[in-house]
What we know:
Blueprint: H1 11-19, H2 31-42, H3 46-52, H4 64-88, H5 94-110, H6 117-120
Helix pairs in contact: 4-5
Amino acid sequence: GIHANFPVPLLGPVMRAATFPRGREYHAAPDKLRKAVSELITTPTEVRALLTENVFVSKNPNDRVNQISRAVSMAVEADKLLSKCRKEKRQPTAEEQAKIDAAEELREQIIQVDAFETLAGKDHKAQHMVPTWTVQRSEGEKVAQ
């Protein structure tokens, strides 16, 4: 930590003793707890609803936040369908396959991180790059070469 990198010799350990007299107060969470918390925020639960209730979600279906919001429930449902089919050792029905394909298609759209058509493509206006100022030279000013 910062105490080990303090430039004055022996002052780092003294600072650590003064700031943390009982030693480290924080310990990493066990894997069981991490998994439980992960389940709570990555599946449609009351905890996830509480965490996302004040998040603005655009109505534009191409918006990433909108896509992620829709994808959570679709992915959970598709996963349940696939698990059910595996347990029953059968192929998904046409209706089940359509739900699985829709979730997969949305997942593919979300992970396309290198597709920036609106930034560098035809829709890009680059208004943020237009200078709002100008440079004027005064009379007699010499330009360094």
